[in-house]
Structure prediction request, 355 residues.
Amino acid sequence: MRRICSLFVLGLLPLVAIAQEALPPPFDVPDSTAKTEAEMKPYTEVLEHAEGKFQMLPIKGGKFLMGSPPTEKGRKPDEGPQHEVQVDPFWMAKFEISWDVYDVWASDLDIFRREALGTAPNARDKAADKYQLTQPTKPYTDMSFGMGKRGYPAICMTQHSARVFCQWLSVKTGRYYRLPTEAEWEYACRAGTTTAYSFGDDPADLGDYAWYTDNSEEKYQKIGLKKPNPWGLHDMHGNVAEWVLDQHSTDFYGKLMGKIAVNPLAIPLTEYNRVVRGGSWDSDAVALRSASRVASHADWKQQDPQLPQSIWYLTDALGVGFRVVRPLTEPTAAERAAKWDKSEPPQIDRVKKPE
Prediction:
């Protein structure tokens, strides 16, 4: 029977405690091992006992100007001032995380397959069981809202939900995954360019690279159907906007001026005003620019009929999804707990009432 209880939400299984545990030995997949940037290769991550898989591309470390210049058409005040940023090398998912991958965790697909085949759980399976107890409760409706599942990007999850998925994925695969920082996301989106979009400044070319309000037919589309950016990443502009780790702040960029900001991160402190990037299928062209930023809002749960409202779902964020990154240099357990996997604010009052 599918689990609907969250020990983390009940305060019995702190996320920080989970993050401090060592990862099990990794599931072996070709080209996934590298000790230096030069050794990094593309690879395909495979989820055991399930059909879910996704491709990861190496992104070399480097410096870039983050934000938009004052002259950029459609620029908003929170996109500046431009500042120099340095990011370390990482792998990034070639596509947005699809329902095929997300539901392996959210719907226990790997557990069902394992039980059907009579396969005994291995060390990774046993460690990942903790995250099956901290997974989304049963949604009140189909969270794809009829737009399609197989091959389509997963949507409507809170940042908390995406982060717990990354925790599960890290244990399940034995490789450390997380959401990108805002700096990593923009660096990868720009792919060495300085223009409004990764293909130039003219939005007339946007249809070749992105699904947005002018061509999406009022719904998201299958991942990877449009041209990639110069580094091979698809749908960085449009289709679904993507969660990053950062709290949205109008003055954070200004605090980074006067020096090279190395791997900056505005650690989230509140449930809302967290950043999504890239624009979506229902966004105008200007919102798909590389520097465009959007802060999450309580209105993204406006139609949630549950009392209290779910910590897992955003019923009114049909254009919000995510993709994952994997840093070349894996942080220590203490670093993960203190920064990258920092525990969410307590939300004990948000446990779903029994049906």
